[in-house]
Amino acid sequence: MCTGGCAKCLGSTLIPLAVLCTLANILLFFPGGKVEESAHITDEVWYFGGILGSGVLMIFPALVFLGLQNNDCCGCCGNRSCGKRFAMFSSIIFAAVGVVGAGYCFILSAVALNKGPKCQSQGGWTYPFEAGDYLGDHELWTKCTSPDNIVPWHLTLFSLLLVMSGIQAVLCGIQVVNGIFGTICGDCKCCGCCGGEGTV
Fold first, then answer.
1. Is 111 helix (H, G, I), strand (E, B) or coil?
2. How many DSSP H helices and E strands does the chain contain?
3. How confident is the model at residue 188 (pLDDT cuts 50, 70, 90)?
4. pLDDT, tens digit (0-9, with 9 covering 90-100), for 49-107
5. In whole angstroms, what is the distance from residue 159 CA to residue 42 CA?
6. Between the CA atoms of 121, 125, 130 and 131, what dihedral angle is there, to the nearest 10 degrees?
7. 69 by DSSP, 3-state: which?
8. Is residue 129 left, alpha or beta, with left meaning phi > 0 and alpha meaning psi from -120 to 50?
9. Before 128, cis peptide (omega within 30)?
10. Contact of 24 with 75, CB cutoff 8 Å
11. Cα separation of 109 and 192, whole Å?
């Protein structure tokens, strides 16, 4: 597959993942599916890992990747040797931004899963779990008396964020490699604006 075509494929995959991560983060503002006071929401939700890291920061690389296949190969003042190559080089920078955003969301999700949800327990609104002990022992979930189903809600959404941000990081990493090949070797074909076809 051409480097531009590969980038377009990656971009079309990143956009729905970014939308899903944003939605997952928004749902985390409603513990157990209910409206709660802001002080009762898990701290990591307020760092907007899914909205900023895997959402907004992922849209920019995705749009750049989608546009690479249609990039004008004539590029710099009709010099076909720099058009596609420069575009592929710029995609490496945007891919790095994507890796940072996905990594931010991944780390926040991992910390939130290990820490557990903030919930009403015997000591008030606290974090009743320690070092992820609730992950392997469902009986501990009873420590949270309110909101209802807060533990599976927290566990499901942050797990989804963890997995999706991990996939995003891998896809952006693939584009870094793809971009390096595209910068060095050029795309596999050039559009007719340069008067012919061939590697540029």
1. helix
2. 4, 2
3. low
4. 999 999 999 999 999 999 886 655 544 444 555 667 888 899 999 999 999 999 999 99
5. 15
6. 140
7. coil
8. beta
9. no
10. no
11. 47
DSSP 2: -
Nearest to 154 by CA among 60, 29, 70, 6: 29
- CA neighbor of 135 nearest in space, from 120, 114, 150: 114
Name the token pair of 196: 């012919």
Lookup: tokens for 59: 């849209």
Overall size of the chain counted in residues: 200
User: Band of the pLDDT at 169, cuts 50, 70, 90?
Assistant: very high
| Contacts for 50 with CB less than 8 Å, ≥ 6 apart | 21, 22, 23, 24, 25, 26, 28, 105, 161, 165
Q: For the whole model, what pTM was predicted?
A: 0.86
Long-range contacts of 192-197 (CB under 8 A, 24+ apart): 193/72, 193/73, 193/74, 194/73, 194/74, 194/78, 194/80
Q: Which residues partner with 97 through β-bridges?
A: none
Query: Regarding beta strands 124-126 and 119-121, do their DSSP bridges make them parallel or antiparallel, or are they unpaired?
Result: antiparallel
